[in-house]
Design brief:
There is one protein chain. The relative contact order is 0.07. It is extended, with a radius of gyration of 33 Å. By secondary structure, it is α+β, with helices and mostly antiparallel strands. It has helices at 18-25, 30-36, 44-58, 69-84, 90-96, 98-101, 117-125, 157-188, 193-205, 209-237, 249-255, 258-262, 269-277, 291-301, 315-343, 345-355, 367-372, 380-383, 390-393, 398-407, 432-443, 445-451, 458-512, 588-601, 615-634, and strands at residues 107-112, 148-155, 359-365, 385-389, 411-417, 528-535, 554-561, 567-574, 605-609.
């Protein structure tokens, strides 16, 4: 996209800018001018680095396991060269340079047909998602002619995928450059040179925006502590303080001196990160005092924390006040300790790697959803979904529909950790909170174990009890943020899949040529054949309304309308064949009758009305598509 500096500003009444004139006069496709904006062209070595990054990020999933990563990287590098150095746009490359990038980046186009109504109905009752089908499969009737509709060398979607990731690569590099500037800001504040050198090395090797965001938050967290130290020093020396830049809870507790107390609980974030990286195993040292004694002594030395007890109160009220004050002190110190752990990029990366894609996604209907969503609601399959694996869901566009249902207030999307171990069967508590904690501890066993002391003394057990609460809170905080990241990634992948499917349809339309509906020059409406399903007796005034026997007879009415909106013919035909079993084929005589109507009317548009036929109308729409597909293939 154009950068902010490149975007033109128009005065009132103007219809074009100087940029429009520049685009017209430049001998480069407009798409590429807009795509690159003021971005500098990359060298061959830089294009290779970008190609390797795009392969890892976009083409390393399960669906690409049969493609050599090396060969895919080479083809992406060739495509980037066509775009960056030769300034060729995608249609030109796909048409005249396809032999250089096929078959890895241009392949067969496949439209999955999806499941039938009966199987989808069973899956819906079980809370499963329907089988995948192409969201635009009925745009062209031949999509329904077979289980999978294919067209050779017609899928350009991977080319557009590379284009999208090319944009993301630019954004990633810009984010990296800004973050390296933050490192220099931190150096001016006096942060440890060793820490900053490690940060710069890690920033250079980060491959995702999420990892860079982790380092950005961590550096700013360290800078805030340095600023807090400076403010405390200024306050003690009586100097005029500048206006504080941060007022969150951690900052307030840090200025109150509780950070030194929190550091007594266990390992620092840097020490735990060292252990998790495998550089060295660092065990926490247990203070000489019990936790309660250490915190009580600190509280007595800092009477300002939590306020002073009113000596006029009864002794039991004074004791209760001191207990609440001590409890608040414990909670504040644990809060600072787990915030430190949850902010460190290496710890976050470790948790992220351990969790991976081990999520299951469910939707739980709300009260509104239970009341409003019936069997024929378009979002019905996505309102109540039971435990779909993330890796399965991210290969479809269904999450967009699940989110649409959530935004409509019909359901609530939940992400949970997936694990092969059945905790309830293993005798573990089955309440939701404990089950969540068990799964988290089982998945992050080393994270929990490394933070605690391996000693078996009573003193170590008391301190480990505090460390347990700290490490659990840190893991839960990181997990909630990872869930938000996974949700965003799932949303983007669903959008990309739907966009690629639309691209496939557009490419196919480009390939087969335009389809005209009606006479564009005369403005006349298209020739139309309309079908409606009617149950026998619906239009008979002599029917005894008191009869209790249901009439199962079904008929199909059709009407032909020409370009002058005149009805040329109306026909009725028996519709009992719509009541057949799902797997049975359409009767040959019925298919022949439909084919005769189509041949005689030569319609440009078909309309199917459900009428009073209910499911029979839906069946007619499906059968009509199949009959038309066969007719197109045959004639």
């Amino acid at each position: 996209d154009l950068s902010i500096a490149d975007k033109p500003t128009l005065a009132v009444g103007e219809t074009e800018s100087a940029l429009d004139e520049t685009i017209r006069n430049t001998d480069i496709p407009e798409f590429l001018q807009v795509h690159f904006g003021s971005r500098k062209r990359l060298s061959a070595e830089e294009l290779t680095d970008e190609a390797e990054w795009i392969q890892r990020q976009a083409f390393s999933g399960v669906q690409y396991q049969d493609i050599s990563p090396t060969e895919m990287t080479r083809k992406i590098s060739i495509l980037l060269k066509f775009l960056h150095q030769e300034t060729l746009d995608v249609p030109f490359i796909a048409t005249y340079r396809r032999e250089y990038i096929a078959p890895q980046l241009i392949g067969d186009m496949t439209f999955p047909r999806g499941g039938d109504q009966e199987s989808d109905g069973a899956r819906r009752r079980n809370g499963d998602l329907p089988e995948e089908e192409h969201p635009t499969k009925w745009v062209i009737p031949t999509h329904a002619a077979s289980v999978d509709w294919k067209r050779r060398d017609a899928d350009w979607s991977r080319l557009w995928t590379v284009i999208e990731w090319d944009k993301k690569y630019v954004q990633l590099e810009a984010q990296r450059a800004k973050l390296l500037a933050v490192v220099e800001e931190a150096r001016k504040l006096g942060i440890s040179e060793e820490l900053l050198e490690d940060a710069a090395d890690q920033i250079e090797s980060c491959g995702t925006s999420v990892e860079l965001s982790d380092w950005d938050a961590y550096l700013r967290h360290c800078m805030a502590k340095m600023e807090a130290n400076a403010e405390n020093a200024a306050e003690q020396s009586g100097k005029k303080q500048r206006k504080p830049g941060r007022r969150d809870r951690f900052f307030a507790l840090y200025r109150a001196g509780i950070y030194a107390l929190a550091s007594q609980i266990g390992l620092s974030a840097e020490q735990l990160a060292t252990s998790l990286r495998g550089i060295a195993r660092i065990a926490p040292e247990n203070p000489a005092e019990k936790p309660a004694d250490l915190f009580l002594n600190w509280s007595r030395d800092h009477p300002d924390f939590g306020g002073e007890v009113d000596s006029s109160l009864p002794l039991h009220e004074q004791a209760r006040f001191e207990d609440r004050k001590l409890s608040l002190l414990f909670e504040s110190a644990r809060f600072m300790a787990f915030t430190e752990l949850a902010t460190h990029p290496a710890i976050r990366k470790h948790v992220r790697e351990q969790v991976g894609r081990k999520f299951i996604v469910s939707t739980i209907p709300t009260e509104k959803g239970k009341f409003e969503v019936g069997d024929f609601h378009p979002l019905r399959p996505y309102v109540c979904v039971n435990d779909v694996d993330l890796e399965k869901l991210e290969r479809t566009h269904y999450f967009l529909l699940m989110q649409s249902a959530e935004e409509s207030g019909l359901t609530k999307i939940e992400f949970r950790i997936s694990h092969s171990r059945d905790f309830a069967a293993a005798g573990q508590p089955t309440n939701e909170r404990q089950d969540k904690l068990d799964r988290l501890q089982d998945l992050l066993m080393d994270f929990f174990d490394l933070y605690k002391s391996p000693e078996s003394t009573l003193l170590a057990e008391e301190w480990n009890a505090q460390r347990d609460e700290v490490v659990v809170a840190a893991a839960e905080k990181i997990m909630e943020e990872i869930k938000a990241e996974v949700r965003q990634e799932l949303l983007e992948s669903s959008q990309a899949i739907l966009r690629n499917r639309a691209v496939q349809t557009a490419d196919l339309r480009f390939d087969v040529g335009a389809v005209s509906l009606g006479n564009e020059t005369s403005g006349k409406p298209p020739r139309t054949v309309a079908f409606t399903v009617v149950e026998e007796g619906d239009e008979d005034d002599t029917v005894d309304v008191t009869q209790t026997t249901k009439i199962h007879g079904v008929k199909i009415s059709s009407a032909w309308v020409d370009g002058d909106s005149e009805v040329l013919d109306v026909r009725d035909m028996p519709g009992q064949w719509l009541m057949r079993r799902k797997m049975d084929p359409v009767q040959e005589s019925s298919a022949q009758t439909i084919a005769e109507i189509v041949t005689s009317a030569r319609p440009q548009v078909f309309v199917v009305g459900v009428g009073s036929g209910g499911r029979s109308g839906i069946r007619l729409k499906e059968d009509l598509s199949l009959i038309l597909a066969d007719l197109l293939v045959r004639d």
